[in-house]
Design goal:
single chain; 113 residues; mainly alpha; 84% helix
Length: 113
């Protein structure tokens, strides 16, 4: 591999990581909002893509599988497509839980006055 290809690969990796960090930061920001629905926007955007791609990947893999092990590997590898949606949903649930706890603490402090 020549130097130019290595530089291009490093730049692409850096941009991909920056995009990933940006999406995760945006998800945390949206999930911490007072309204409940902004945090569900990104998971709702990723889910239809997964639901459109997943059956095609499964049917293609199952059509080419020769034994049960290959079928199992195809199903497990297809489940990896759900990871972005699951990660964004987990961030949402974690942030909302902390928001509800903070809200309860504030409510108790007001009652103590």
């Amino acid at each position: 591999m020549d130097t130019t290809a290595m530089v291009v690969t490093a730049v692409n990796l850096g941009l991909t990581l920056a995009l990933l960090v940006g999406v995760l930061a945006l998800q945390v920001f949206l999930s911490r909002r007072k309204a409940w629905w902004p945090g569900l926007v990104l998971p709702a955007c990723t889910l239809p893509g997964v639901l459109l791609i997943l059956p095609n990947v499964l049917l293609n893999a199952l059509g080419q599988a020769e034994n049960m092990v290959q079928v199992l590997l195809a199903v497990l590898s297809s489940a990896l497509l759900l990871l972005p949606t699951l990660a964004l949903t987990a961030i949402y649930l974690f942030c909302r839980r902390r928001y509800r706890q903070k809200k309860q603490i504030d409510k108790m402090n007001i009652q103590d006055l």
